[in-house]
């Protein structure tokens, strides 16, 4: 509530949601237990849970786990933390960068993050946790603005299966240990308000962290074998570009065609029509990687064999030129395979 925190306590395997007042009390107890172990205030503990929905937390195990976790605390424990929060994920997701923002002495501002998520991934409410830390000295307003912008470019631009979930968290904490000049959105220069250059540097680095983690989530989508990037250009309005990109990346027919390397660009055109936006089909061009497959809304039949070979690659980029305006966006997804069904039909 006071926008300050010193620690995060998270559990995996149980979402602690749809548990009524008991769930709230258990979350509060997690914060209390962590605060006691760390010798800090309960209000300075952030709590996150992920896993099965509508199951009561095993608080005796949680208590013991918190005690063990405190003994394992280390500045080199990032990989252990990234692995500990996984559920149906197949690999740990972590990344860190050093910025060009100078700090105390030879120090430079650093940002690092870990994330988990593989299913029930879709904008706004996904089964994902993301914890980001930075040693930057930065104002609360600047940190909030940079984070909101980064999340909208990354975690709100991905889909594994089009489903949302009850647990969706992005935490970011800054401790100021880099000793840099405090980053603000604006600062005064000769009585004028000018953009803080370091804020731009910080925002660019945070964008990179979040987009990289978001792409890891969809690359590790349940049963996925291919990463799909959908770039829409030439839209009349920003929301049109986003709706179209999301519709194509989320289309089951597009996703299964890519899974089976089926050369069917018509499925992309069909998804465009389902996006409910202002669009002129006879102006649309569609590329798969660098291969033109639709020109002015007409499919190019002679490229099917070439397209089949393109679709055998592990990363597929679909570029859609609407040729109607100046707005663009990028959205990421993954293919849909039989393994996704096998994973979820036995997820109990």
Q: Your description of this structure?
A:
It is found in: Cytoplasm. The chain is an alpha+beta fold and 348 residues long. It folds into two domains: 213 residues, 4-Layer Sandwich (L-amino peptidase D-ALA esterase/amidase), CATH 3.60.70.12; 119 residues, Ubiquitin-like (UB roll) (Roll), CATH 3.10.20. The protein has ten helices and 14 strands. Helix 1 links the parallel strand 1 and strand 2. Helix 1 packs parallel to helix 2 and helix 4 packs parallel to helix 5. The longest helix has 23 residues. The chain is globular and about 70 Å long. The relative contact order is 0.12.
Placed side by side, the strands forming the largest sheet appear as: 12-11-10-13-9-14
Contiguous uncertain segments of 5+ residues? none
Largest sheet: 6 strands, mixed
Q: Taking all residues together, what is the mean pLDDT?
A: 94
CATH architectural grouping of the largest domain: 4-Layer Sandwich
Subcellular location: Cytoplasm
EC number: 2.3.1.1, 2.3.1.35
Subunit structure: Heterotetramer of two alpha and two beta chains.
InterPro entries: Arg_biosynth_ArgJ (IPR002813), ArgJ-like_dom_sf (IPR016117), ArgJ_beta_C (IPR042195)
């Amino acid at each position: 509530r006071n926008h300050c925190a010193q620690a995060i306590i998270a559990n995996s395997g149980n979402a602690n949601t749809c548990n009524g007042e008991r769930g709230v009390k258990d979350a509060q107890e997690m914060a209390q237990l962590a605060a006691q172990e760390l010798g800090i205030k309960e209000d300075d503990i952030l709590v996150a849970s992920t896993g099965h929905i509508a199951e009561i937390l095993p608080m005796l195990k949680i208590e013991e786990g918190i005690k063990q976790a405190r003994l394992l605390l280390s500045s080199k424990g990032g990989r252990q933390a990234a692995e500990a929060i996984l559920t149906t994920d197949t690999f740990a997701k972590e990344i860190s960068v050093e910025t060009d923002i100078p700090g105390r002495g030879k120090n430079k501002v650093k940002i690092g993050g870990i994330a988990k998520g593989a299913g029930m991934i879709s904008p706004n409410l996904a089964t994902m946790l993301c914890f980001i830390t930075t040693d930057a000295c930065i104002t609360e307003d600047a940190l909030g603005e940079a984070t909101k912008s980064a999340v909208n470019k990354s975690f709100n631009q991905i889909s594994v299966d089009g489903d949302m979930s009850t647990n969706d968290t992005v935490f970011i904490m800054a401790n100021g240990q880099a000793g840099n000049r405090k980053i603000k959105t604006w600062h005064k220069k000769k009585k004028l308000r000018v953009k803080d250059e370091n804020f731009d540097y910080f925002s660019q680095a945070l964008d990179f962290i979040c987009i990289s983690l978001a792409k890891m989530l969809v690359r590790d989508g349940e049963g996925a074998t291919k990463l799909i990037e959908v770039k829409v250009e030439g839209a009349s309005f920003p929301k049109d570009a986003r709706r179209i990109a999301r519709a194509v990346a989320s289309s089951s027919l597009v996703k299964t065609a890519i899974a089976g390397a089926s050369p069917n660009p018509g499925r992309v055109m069909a998804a465009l029509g389902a996006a409910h936006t202002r669009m002129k089909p006879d102006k649309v061009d569609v590329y798969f990687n660098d291969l033109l497959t639709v020109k002015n809304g007409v499919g190019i039949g002679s490229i099917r064999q070439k397209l089949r070979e393109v679709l055998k690659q592990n990363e597929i980029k679909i570029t859609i030129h609407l040729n109607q305006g100046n707005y663009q966006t990028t959205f990421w997804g993954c293919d849909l395979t039989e393994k996704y069904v096998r994973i979820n039909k036995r997820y109990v």
